[in-house]
Specification:
single chain; alpha/beta; two-stranded antiparallel ribbon; 10 helices
Length: 191
């Protein structure tokens, strides 16, 4: 499938989510769906938990301070936002930035999995414990970060959320060190 075919498929998934309306309460309190953005043919997909206020305003994930730090770390390994795909498990902003509820995650997961099937990334990077625990419920982020894990036909690299590094300066270097693993993992996973 070409990049433009994949882009069209991702647009169809976003439209399907709007049509299916699996989260009417979240949708009612949000400004818009934030399906994700970036390269539809990316080697890397970053997955956050849910959109925040700025993301809800702009319809794009990771546009606040955490997004700037994510862009800085991508730059550090020779990549730009346009080279990767960035999304969230839950595609609508929960009220007051609360954590998504288990039922909201469950309702959102099929759409995320459809996105991953279309993109076919070489590496999936859950950002933070909430995103990681959707795929690996028993993992603890402080132990699992920076360790690649194969699950079915996907390779995951759990990382601390960039926002955590903004609040805890000690995590900045840890996150940068973990980021430095990405180029080699992509190289090892070329098909």
């Amino acid at each position: 499938m070409t990049r433009s075919d994949k882009t069209k498929q991702l647009e169809k998934i976003a439209q399907k989510m709007i049509n299916d309306d699996p989260l009417p309460e979240l949708r009612a309190g949000a400004k818009q769906l934030v399906p994700g953005n970036g390269n539809a043919d990316a080697d890397i997909v970053f997955i956050g938990e849910a959109p925040g206020a700025r993301e809800d305003e702009q319809g794009v994930p990771f546009v606040g301070a955490a997004g700037k730090f994510l862009a800085e770390m991508l730059d550090g390994i020779g990549l730009k936002r346009e080279d990767v795909f960035i999304t969230n498990i839950v595609k609508y902003r929960p009220p007051n930035n609360r954590d998504p509820l288990p039922a909201e995650i469950e309702a959102s997961l099929p759409y995320l999995m459809q996105q991953l099937r279309v993109i076919e990334p070489k590496l999936v990077i859950p950002l933070g414990r909430h995103a990681m625990n959707v795929f690996f419920p028993d993992f603890i982020i402080s132990e699992a970060h920076g360790t690649p894990v194969q699950k079915e036909d996907l390779v995951f690299l759990p990382l601390f959320h960039p926002a955590a590094a903004l609040y805890n300066g000690g995590l900045r270097q840890t996150l940068k060190d973990d980021f430095a693993l990405i180029p080699q993992l992509i190289k090892n996973n070329k098909t």
